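Fold this complex.
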Amino acid sequence: MTDPFTLAMVLIAALALMGQSIGISMLVGSFVYLMLKGYDVSIAAETMMQGLFNGYTLLAVPLFILAADIMNIGSLADKLLRFAQALVGRFRGGLGHVNVVSSLIFSGMSGSAVADAVGMGKIVITMMTKDGKYTPSYAAAITAATAIVGPIIPPSIPMVLYALVSGQSVGFLFAAGILPGLLMALLMAVTNGVIAHRRGFPVDDGIPLRELPGATWQAIPALMLPVILLGGIYGGVMTPTEAAAVAAAYALVISVVLYRSVSARGLYQALLGSARSTASVGILIAGALAFNYVVTRENVPDSVAAMLSAMDLGPVGFLIAVNILFLVLGCVLEAGALLLIVVPILIPAAQALGIDLVHFGVVLVVNAMLGLITPPYGLLLFIVAAITKQPLIPIIKDLVPFIAILIVALMVITFCPDFVLYLPRLLGYQG
Amino acid sequence: MTRFAPILGWLQRRAENFIALMLAAMFLTFLLQILFRYILALPVTYTNWTVEFVSIAWLWGILFGYAFVVRDSDIIRLDIVYNGLPLGARRVLDAVTGLICAAILANTLPKCWDYVQFMRIERTPAMRIHYNYVFAIYIAFAVAVIVRSLLNVWGAIRGTGSRYVTPIHPEGHDYD
Amino acid sequence: ASATVELIYSDTVSETDIRSQLLQSEFGDCLGDEFTFQAYHGATLFAQGTELTAMQRGNLDMANLAIFDFYNQVPATSVLGLPFLFRDYEHMRAVYNSDVLDELWAQVEEATNVKFLSFPYIGARHLSYIGDHRYMTPADLAGVRLRMPGGEGWQFVGQAMGASPVPVAFTEVYTALQTHAIDAQDNGFPATRSMRFDELLTHIALTNHLIAANEFTMSMSKWNSMTAEQQERVQMCADQFEAALDQTTLEQEATLQAEFEAQGIDVYVPDNAAFQAHVTEVYMNSPYSADWPAGLVDAIGAVGQ
Ligand code: NA
Ligand code: NA
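Structure:
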């Protein structure tokens, strides 16, 4: 880690803490690194643009934002909300549970936590905050926290990347993710319940149970949406990115034809608002792409991982050190790059310590996902801040209990390999 | 500055039209892709432009949108420290960080211009567009961010920036 | 003054892949004390398809490129992406060792400022799929959703084979097969194993449609900055890398085929003459063949006959 790199890191941290745009801070820091090293400074612009241009899976982001905006201006979100209220409204924190469950259902959508968070996440946030029962920061926090379950429950892009570098079976890795993902979801639901009681989130008594059939009937077109998407993706009719477009189209058609609730002006505002949110989130991804080059060129993950492998810690110490390493490196690298660069160095050490590699993969993916919501730099954290237009501090405050319970889950996952490997073994895994 | 306000306002609305149109085009292109590929089962030569088009719209949407449409109040910041400071200190920080960003983006602009021009030798796979056109958006983006940074520095020095007068843009919660 | 020559290398192969290990042991270690060889794998430094321009701009010294990477700058190179151009591995190697391609390489070096060092064999591509019967001819592939890498050149290969090509990123092929978004893919045996596609596949048709070699290259400015002895050293190590990768790939292909069969995958030889006839016709009627040097396809075919 040479001086130009340290300087660039300090500059980025300073600019960001002094209130500059985080995306621009990372781009500027990357430029400064290249200048000081005497490299071609245009590499930062190149990496940023090539990365965006080739980031096909992220194309689902603007379309999911649009789908959510259309569901909102049409009355789909209202009908869904009324249904959810009739179903779980009498329970404290009911919509929080809806948020957890929707993350589980949609975990298969894109295999990418970022796309999933803005997908159903934005719709559920709208429902939670519409009548002022939940604070926007709490809605944002629980959405970010539950979204990370997405890539732990299959399908999962990070697991495929891990399989590629570790030589493990994708099928067994996918199976190994299921119980940990369910455990995390369960613990978050419990946390939501406890917080709802402690903070006294109001309950609905306005909608009696006998109105449930009516509310359900009204919500059927909206409830069909997940059925269509999941059926389409698993039936091989469309890719997850295309599914985002279908979701937006479906919401539009239902709103126009069935509920007659969309004006041309409303649609324009939805398009503009979605495009604007996309640009504010996108610049963060762009800045991170530019800075990824710097971190890779400096071999930072290499040297840190090599140091860790050489420390001779024993299985427990090694796994804890890996947990910490991932949480720290998650601040400067996106999850995919992290897995591709660090995992090859850690695998031999893990093997030597007798750690099962499928189990290790789940531990690493859970870690990489946790890094998306832990301050100071967590992409999901920023995204929910952008789509709720809330400052970060209250969101982070509301996230603390969820992060705490997720760390408990991480410990269970880390130290109970039998729990993680239960399903793969049922399917014939010999490990 | 005020006599330019109508023109700037007009340009602002056209920029908004542009990115809204871009997202609409992206959306329709995806629907066309599904129609062509799965419903009409056309060969891929009819559909491989779709992926490329939406990729360009995504790149342009982000860089153009950030430069010309995203308001200062929409920009994602780590405001943990900043918000706790008094107004005077915030003005100083804004002037300093704005100058640093403008200076570095301006200083690196010629080399980036050179890269964009260089990419003329490569073409996109499906639509065969020269990459210098695809990547030209960077130049507009960088120039706009430089100008906006300098305007913010000016606003910070005079104490008239939007972040000191109205903390949240009046339209900030229109379509959440 | 530093005496060592720094060589920055980037590719898209995973760091744990046997190819990356051979690159280090046969090329990197072979270079000796006069060189510092720094390899970045998994497309972590430069994205796939951007290595050529990075070398031309002096930001990268070496890369292992695919022939389609040259298409934009020298359209004639697409001739080497013609399926069934090579009969088998021996034919491919004989062609690269002969002088048939010298004129083409000279043209590419001149146009791109990139030095060609060697052409390591990375394996033959075969048609593998999830299905319930054998596909013997191009007609059997009608409507089969065959994953091909993104990019027009690759997609056209799938189309010429008679299938409906679908562009899917390499890392997403497994999930695409699992969710039946695609039916087939055409990676060679080593990639099919390392990406675990064999967990899902039911059939492999030994089409051998592309006998693929990489272009192991160095930027011309870096090459020219070295002394004659250093150039000789680099060339020697590049040849050694080629020989080692050839041997390893051939061994892997033989072992993996036996393993796939033992796993219950139906591995069979389709009517390759029918595929070749169809592919040749499609290419000859396409804009690609217009760029090809006159008589080169025949000259390649004549090698070793
Ligand atoms: Na998932
Ligand atoms: Na959620």
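Residues 5-39 of chain B form the longest helix (35 residues).
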